[in-house]
Amino acid sequence: MKRVAIIGVTGAVGQEFVLALNKHPWFEVKQIAASERSAKKKFEDAIRDPNTGILRWHLREPIPDYVKNMTIDAVDDINPENFDLIFSSVESEAARDIETKFAKHVPVISTSAAYRYEADVPILIPGINDDHIGLLDIQKKNRGWKGFVAPLPNCTTTGLAITMKPLLDKFGAQKIIMTSMQAMSGAGRSPGVSALDITDNIIPYIPKEEDKVRLETGKILGKLVDGKIDPAKMKVSCTCTRVPVLDGHTESVFVETATHVDPETVKKAMKEFSNSVSVTGLPSAPKEYLMVNEDPTRPQPRLDREINEGMTTVVGRLREDTVFDNGIKYVLFSHNEKMGSAKGAVLLAEMLYKKGYI
After folding, report:
1. What is the DSSP letter of 287?
2. Is 58 in the active site?
3. What is the pLDDT of residues 224-269, one digit of tens each?
């Protein structure tokens, strides 16, 4: 068993880590940490509202027994040399300093954006760009670290990159236009989304989100050449919106390919890709990595968010587009708090462990 710590354990993503690591066959949570406000409290007490006594546990599953009475430490109280791996869910400005401190000694798997856009830091999605793993060795050498930082992509990027992988490899995707309909949970609990803002409403702006998707998609689907990532040569334009859905991001995607391709051929390529993804044997890997649903009313967040415990990206309404000369369009659904967050980070850690990086 590898000894792991969770940083930022009381937040929405930290709670997802608590659940994703419950009874994990390879990783054992030995220490948890959060802000000074929560330090020295038991986990269950730290997430209890001091005014109402209500637990701020936002997941449908109950709090795992192993963590209820664990005492939360301050971040500075964690000795990285006592661990094989640290999971970081810190989203504040402090994330970079915290992750730098620990990566000097031990691998850090992060859900924050602090290191995503550094030249020697890959943004990894297991089965999508495994060849970028070699950049971790360059990162360690460049920085003189024993460990490394391996960040997840933005949760909105995850589903798009997964579905675009076979389109880029098989058909030479050149342009992408995407509109997202993102769940409220993607904004976190604090400050989150005001009920008065989101009820009976759609908010057509999420700060920095569109640039993140554009930059990350190109980086993830690019090639590692001479120790650097050469971004994929395709243009990405997106509009990111917040909608009154609890969990799961839906995206409407339009793609221009290098040559004409019909929808049935694209469906076949997506299914073949899903069957070939190299995540077999990883405990958190879904049975189906990418699912194509023939029902014209799918995907839907309420119906599809629990497929394979939220780890499957679902595609539907795959059809020919009539604006692009060689156009395909589809709707995708990806669970922002599972594959796009902590459970996806655990899947990444599993892959790195199997490849000898942890």
Report:
1. S
2. no
3. 999 999 999 999 999 999 999 999 999 999 999 999 999 999 999 9
| Residue showing tokens 């354990």 | 9
Structure tokens at 25: 């066959």
Angle at which helix 12-20 crosses helix 342-354, to 10 degrees, equals 50
Q: Which of 155, 238, 240, 335 is catalytic?
A: 155
> Considering the entire predicted model, what is its pTM?
0.96
**3-state helix vs strand vs coil in the chain, percent to 5:** 35, 25, 45
Half-sphere exposure of 10 (CA within 13 A, CB side): 26
Burial of 212 (0-12, 13-18, 19+ CB in 10 A): buried
Active-site annotation holder among 132, 240, 249, 335 = 249
Task: Give the tokens for residue 12.
Answer: 């929405």
pLDDT in tens, 54-66: 999 989 899 999 9
- Concerning whether 155 is annotated as a catalytic residue, the answer is yes
| Exposed/middle/buried for residue 4 (C-beta within 10 Å: 0-12, 13-18, 19+) | buried
Question: Which residues have C-beta within 8 Å of that of residue 133, sequence separation ≥ 6?
Answer: 122, 124, 352, 355, 357
For residue 332, the number of C-alpha atoms closer than 13 Å in the C-beta half-sphere is: 29
Q: Walk me through the domains of the chain, giving residue ranges and CATH numbers.
A: 2-152+342-354 (3.40.50.720), 155-334 (3.30.360.10)
Residues in the chain: 358
Nearest to 75 by CA among 124, 122, 14, 16: 14
